[in-house]
Amino acid sequence: MKRFEHEYPSNRASRHAGDPASVSASQASSAAFETDCDVLIVGGGINGCGIARDLAGRGWRVILCEKDDLAAHTSSSSTKLIHGGLRYLEYYEFSLVRKALQEREVLLKSAPHIMWPLRFVMPHDPSMRPAWMIRMGLFMYDHLAKREVLPGSRTVDLRKHPAGQSLKNAFKRGFVYSDGWVDDARLVVLNALDARERGADVLTRTRCVSAQRSADAWTAVLEGPEGRRTVRARAVVNAAGPWAETFLRGVARAASGETLATRHLRLVKGSHIIVPRVFAHDHAYIFQNPDKRIIFAIPYQDDFTLIGTTDIELPGDDPGAARIGDDEIDYLCTQASRYFEKPIKPSDVVWTYSGVRPLLDDASGDPSAVTRDYMLESNTTAAPLLSVWGGKITTFRKLAEDAADEVGRMLGDARKPWTEGAFLAGGDLSAWIGPTSRTSRPDDDFGRFVVEVQKRHPWLDAGLARRLARAYGARITEVIGDARSMDDLGAEVAPGLHERELYYLQNEEWARSSDDVLWRRSKLGLHYTRIEREQVNTWLQVHEPDKEEVHAAVT
Questions:
Q1: DSSP 8-state secondary structure symbol assigned to residue 138
Q2: More confident residue, 265 or 394
Q3: Where does the pLDDT of residue 235 fall: very low under 50, low under 70, confident under 90, or very high at 90 and above?
Q4: pTM (2 decimals)?
Q5: What does the pLDDT average to over 229-234?
Q6: What is the DSSP string of 484-528?
Q7: How many CB atoms are located within 10 Å of the residue 249 CB?
Q8: In angstroms, how far is CA 54 from the centroid of its own chain?
């Protein structure tokens, strides 16, 4: 894996000599002709932040605007899996599955603190699919792309395997295969951090209210916490996710003033429930349902089990208003209870979340059958416009690479890709554990990292050390700074959450509200009482971020 030296925020506009992502001074000067940036990206989800990172790493001047918080919507509402999509094989989506399988290990190696391998158990229900069909599908899943660290599939006896203990006695045989887990919201933040450290401006809570196209540039009006500003960009990337179609129809304007032609999105709501831990082992389950859909049951935040997802056409036209319905809760409880010995009841649900998948409308009658693949649509009739349609979190890096290639083509300046083999922010653990081999397991590397964190900081509470290591990876030193005792972390605002970490999140990770901190930058909200959550909210309201003062406090 390539190693990219870390840049501190104060040096993030600089480039490293010899960095394959750097560009020459002549390239940079030729790109600037009375514009504020080369590329304006609209949308701060995984696709927008991934594209910003890739473009900035190629030396392009990038501004990204997001109307809410990073990953505030779809990108924090996934099933949190890095997976090829086993069920897509039934829809003959071989290209999509292969592309996703190729990306699994690339991603797992790039950020072992927020992504790790996960084994899945599929109990066999003969009334669903015959065993030979499942074995054939898993054989293809194992061999459509090269694997270096993930083990292949196998058949297991559920009467003897630990995963069978929480299942009904009727399930005697099962199949085990590999995929991966990801903290989706933190994945978005890591991409944004990397983009910023490579020179991009990342503007959260900043809405693009208008974007006027001319022959050689876009003039966009951005409205944020400090008021309105006008930005001129050579190109625009529409990565607004569920709002991508709305952006083209209501915000972006062609040189002649009319709205830009667009494709139609199919907005599909996916909902999940969180219940107290149902099983003790570290495997996840994939359950087949009578409606031919599947749901997952996944270990979550130590004390819980995540169950999802649904596929329901979104009623109305506001993706931000998506909420789980009682019918979805009943559905997930009913289907999970078909397998678990102890039934899952709606009263067991401690938290829910819903996201809207912006899928390309392919006229399929079944929302589950709509392709999860992405399409990039370029328009060069005037200043370049690139619209991102569809996609899934597993293929975000490849999507970003393809998008950056296309932007370079549209601007007449192709620049080399660089993200395959590069670490995400905090993902390079070599300063702690030494060089890793190509075939070393990311979860083993992380385990060694936690041990080293505890050795270097023996005063740090063990549970807190693991949580901080998991969230921040090698950037943990930027969170705890020169602290030498628990007292140096500042007041404990809520259990395990100290002022120093909150200052860091405000100053470095764009966190402004308690939702940003408790449900996206972390999942501490699950572990806190209402009063404890309110304590965090009060602290954030009282302590407005002051860049100079807070940076000094953190470093």
A1: H
A2: 394
A3: very high
A4: 0.91
A5: 97
A6: -SGGGG--EEETTEEHHHHHHHHHHS---SHHIIIIII--GGGTS
A7: 12
A8: 15
